[in-house]
Amino acid sequence: MPALSSTMTEGKIVSWVKSEGDLLFKGESVVVVESDKADMDVETFYDGILAAIVVSEGDTAPVGAAIGILAETEAEIEEAKAKAAAKSPSSPPPAAPVAESPAPAAPISADSAPGKVVATPFAKKLAKQHKVDVRKLAGTGPNGRVTPEDVEKAAGIAPAPKANVAAAVAPSAPAPAAPAKAAVSYPEIPGAKIVPFTTMQAAVSRNMIESLSVPTFRVGYPIATDALDALYKKVKAKGVTMTALLAKAAAMALVQHPVVNSSCKDGKSFTYNSSVNIAVAVAMDDGLITPVLQDADKLDLYLLSKKWKELVEKARAKQLQPQEYNSGTFTLSNLGMFGVDRFDAILPPGQGAIMAVGASKPTVVADKEGFFTVKNQMLVNVTADHRVIYGADLAAYLQTFMKIIQNPESLTM
């Protein structure tokens, strides 16, 4: 009678697709869980009966905690309900999700009489499927019962994960908790309202704190945009956004400067990424998310723009898959559309650099002969991990990026 579990830092149950007493089949969606950035359908790994729901809709559960109990037979349902009543989201989670086996029922069923084969229904189904004779197996379950794992072992199949729900809501295990610090006391302001973080806001908070451990430096660079603005006017009617143009230009420059597309994940080595995946910051009502344009250097401008529109729509609907928001190798944050002329961006964990782009504005500039002219100009500020990216690296990258922006014909090729 395994417990349904989910490996995330903390998850909120959006809705249960199945109800208590429903028969479940392997691969079926059971529950919708709100992860850090999206709502995810979570599937069961086994056949069985949803005997009890431990965490109700709207409630949250910590990592490793059971959210529901799956029974293999109807006889185990009452015991499952008893287990569910003893569990709560606030109870300490186990070190890892572990399948729970029921104590032997009393009296022993007729199937358990001497000379009879004792096996779970799903074990019998697996045995028939893989042509395994359960009569020759030594069961490891309660009272010598043959379990699905026994059948899989006999058939030479790698054992399935013990948890019964796919851990599709978190790309990796959470980082070890930082040493506890004394809570800081702040004075209460009369009439103030305390609003708890949403799941997304909590994820943003964790990432920002993690970023503080990385030594960073920042470089600003002014770039004339008259040519880029002219190109934008031509392609805007075809659905191309300024963000797509900037993402394409950034990707093309990164191909020539792979160190700026690298990262340091262990404090001891470079990770050179074979793909140029541009993550682009998108503001949400309750936080921030960075959909990723994968292989942005290999997509033509119009296909990239179409892909970007699809990603934004999925982000607004909270339907992004984990690889669509956690696979970025370089991040672009564009606040120029809001009229912001300059700002610094915080380095995302696991990446080497992030580029903050300000608005393009008429600016008085001097040419080589000292004559003043007015040109449209934007300021980009790049924040980089100084463990793997040095000043000369970033300066060379920005010069390449500037050349692409000032001669943007290559963006449409």
Automatic annotation (TrEMBL):
Q: Where is the Lipoyl-binding domain?
A: 1-74
- What broad class of enzyme is this? transferase
Which cofactors go with this protein? Answer: (R)-lipoate
Could you tell me which SUPFAM superfamilies the record lists for this protein? CoA-dependent acyltransferases (SSF52777), Peripheral subunit-binding domain of 2-oxo acid dehydrogenase complex (SSF47005), Single hybrid motif (SSF51230)
Q: Which Pfam families match?
A: 2-oxoacid_dh, Biotin_lipoyl, E3_binding
EC number(s) for this protein?
Answer: 2.3.1.-
Question: Mind listing the UniProt keywords for this protein, alphabetically?
Answer: Acyltransferase, Lipoyl, Transferase, Transit peptide
- Provide one Gene Ontology cellular component: chloroplast thylakoid
Positions of the UniProt region annotated as Disordered:
80-113
Which intervals of the chain form a coiled coil?
A: none
Q: Which GO terms describe its biological process?
A: pyruvate decarboxylation to acetyl-CoA
Q: Which InterPro entries match?
A: 2-oxoA_DH_lipoyl-BS, 2-oxoacid_DH_actylTfrase, Biotin_lipoyl, CAT-like_dom_sf, E2/Pdx1, E3-bd_dom_sf, PSBD, Single_hybrid_motif
This entry's Gene Ontology molecular function terms read:
dihydrolipoyllysine-residue acetyltransferase activity
Indicate the family of this protein: Belongs to the 2-oxoacid dehydrogenase family.
Its protein name is: Dihydrolipoamide acetyltransferase component of pyruvate dehydrogenase complex
Q: Which organism is it from?
A: Salvia splendens (Scarlet sage)
